[in-house]
């Protein structure tokens, strides 16, 4: 039902990018505004193959969108926008091997996804560039020369090497390499020891690389959609970890020292082969989101009642026969999906959970039983707040 908040999403295809927009109409719209008030130019979907020189008079512009056009070269006119902070050139036809944007001295974010960049691509940027998004270009090597880059997003490539200038290694905080066909870490990635978030989802890992133990400042680690059979113990030494995502893997057991991660807030273990949850999971007292759907669970540990901060719980497609009474102690629970199990009846106390707003019970063993139908009607009548449910 629910998925990780940071799940990788693919860039929009040109053929589905929406209707073309009129450049003359847009220029007339801008002409009605004071020149100094124009901070953003939205030139997306205008079928452009060059930059409109009529727009160079808007010298206060801080953001330019040139995505979904037909540009095959880097527009030299961009250098005239001295205050430019954000530039989107995605979904064009750029086929360069190197990009030099050092003359854009205030540029903070650069998006060049879905182009035709060469496999050994390089970027030279000014000292303020913080974020680079370069998805869907089938890069094998990415080199970035800048001082302040903190976030690198390079999904849907085939990266073997990721290298950045030595003087800003300690600034990199987030790297997203989802869907790169990786079986091991790209060369150079281990140099960024102060990473706070690492996304390696939708790759081909069968194990978590042991050299990742040096990433002891991680707050988020996403390994969903791989073929991993075990969560390594060194992850439980990451004292800053708040989000851990291993959904869609091949986990059979998670008997780990969860008490070492009391600060964890989000845990995604759906679509694995788990038959039980350990008692130690009750020590995750700050846990807010827990997703364990599509496993083989039949019961919950007694310690589950200690998860008093839990807001979202998804446990559909398991093997529960009896409704887990531990759930009735979760007073902060807002969303519960326990559909597609084998539960025959539900307790009346369920309607007394004060924060519950979303409840899914469909496709359980009692779905045709009059008793359950009456219970559901009673539930609807007793609950004063608006609750949506599917049955």
Description:
- This protein has 391 residues and is mainly beta.
- The protein has a domain at 13-91: Leucine-rich repeat, LRR (right-handed beta-alpha superhelix) (Alpha-Beta Horseshoe), CATH 3.80.10.10.
- Helix content is 6%, strand content 17%.
- It has two helices and 20 strands.
- Residues 1-16 have low confidence and may be disordered.
Please sum up the structure shown.
The protein is mainly β. The protein has helices at residues 23-31, 370-382, and strands at 40-42, 63-65, 86-88, 98-101, 109-111, 120-125, 131-133, 141-145, 151-153, 161-164, 174-176, 197-199, 220-222, 243-245, 266-268, 289-291, 312-314, 335-337, 358-360, 388-390. β19 (358-360), α2 (370-382) and β20 (388-390) form a beta-alpha-beta unit.
List keywords for this structure.
globular, 4-stranded parallel beta sheet, 16-stranded parallel beta sheet, Leucine-rich repeat, LRR (right-handed beta-alpha superhelix), 6% helix, mainly beta, 391 residues, 17% strand, 2 helices, disordered N terminus
CATH 2nd-level architecture of the domain at 13-91? Alpha-Beta Horseshoe
Name the CATH superfamily classification of the domain at 13-91: Ribonuclease Inhibitor
CATH class of the domain at 13-91, named Alpha Beta
Q: What's the mean pLDDT score?
A: 90
Biggest sheet strand line-up: 1-2-3-5-7-9-11-12-13-14-15-16-17-18-19-20
Q: Cα distance, first to last residue?
A: 15 Å
- What is the makeup of the main sheet? 16 strands, parallel
Count of helical regions: 2
CATH topology of the domain at 13-91: Leucine-rich repeat, LRR (right-handed beta-alpha superhelix)
Per DSSP E runs of 2 or more residues, the count of β-strands stands at 20
Shape: globular
Write down the Rg: 25 Å
Question: Beta-strand level of the residues, as a percent range?
Answer: 15-25%
């Amino acid at each position: 039902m629910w998925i990780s908040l940071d799940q990788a999403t693919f860039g929009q295809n040109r053929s589905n990018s929406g209707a073309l927009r009129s450049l003359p109409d847009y220029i007339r719209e801008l002409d009605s505004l004071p020149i100094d008030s124009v901070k953003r130019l939205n030139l997306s979907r205008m079928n452009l193959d060059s930059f409109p020189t009529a727009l160079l008079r808007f010298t206060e512009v801080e953001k330019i969108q040139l995505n979904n056009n037909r540009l095959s070269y880097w527009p030299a006119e961009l250098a005239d926008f001295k205050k430019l902070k954000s530039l989107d050139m995605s979904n064009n036809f750029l086929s360069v091997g190197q990009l030099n944007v050092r003359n854009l001295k205030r540029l903070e974010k650069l998006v060049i996804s879905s182009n035709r960049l060469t496999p050994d691509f390089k970027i030279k940027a000014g000292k303020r560039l913080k974020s680079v998004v370069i998805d869907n270009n089938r890069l094998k090597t990415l080199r970035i020369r800048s001082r302040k880059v903190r976030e690198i997003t390079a999904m849907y490539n085939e990266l073997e090497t990721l290298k950045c200038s030595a003087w800003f290694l300690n600034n990199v905080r987030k790297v997203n390499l989802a869907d790169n066909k990786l079986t091991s870490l790209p060369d150079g990635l281990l140099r960024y020891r102060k990473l706070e978030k690492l996304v390696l989802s939708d790759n081909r890992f069968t194990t978590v690389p042991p050299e990742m133990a040096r990433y002891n400042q991680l707050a988020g680690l996403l390994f969903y959609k791989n073929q991993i059979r075990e969560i390594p113990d060194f992850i439980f030494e990451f004292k800053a970890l708040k989000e851990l995502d291993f959904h869609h893997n091949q986990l059979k057991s998670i008997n780990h020292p969860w008490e070492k991660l009391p600060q964890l807030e989000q845990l995604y273990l759906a679509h694995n082969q788990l038959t039980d949850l350990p008692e130690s999971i009750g020590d995750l007292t700050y846990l807010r989101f827990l997703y364990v759907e599509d496993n083989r669970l039949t019961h919950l540990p007694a310690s589950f009642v200690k998860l008093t901060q839990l807001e979202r719980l998804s446990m559909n497609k398991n093997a529960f026969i009896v409704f887990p009474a531990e759930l009735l102690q979760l007073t902060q629970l807002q969303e519960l999906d326990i559909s597609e199990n084998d539960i025959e009846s539900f307790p009346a106390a369920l309607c007394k959970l004060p924060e519950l707003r979303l409840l899914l019970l469909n496709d359980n063993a009692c779905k045709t039983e009059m008793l359950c139908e009456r219970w559901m009607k009673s539930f609807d009548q007793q609950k004063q707040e608006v609750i949506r449910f599917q049955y």
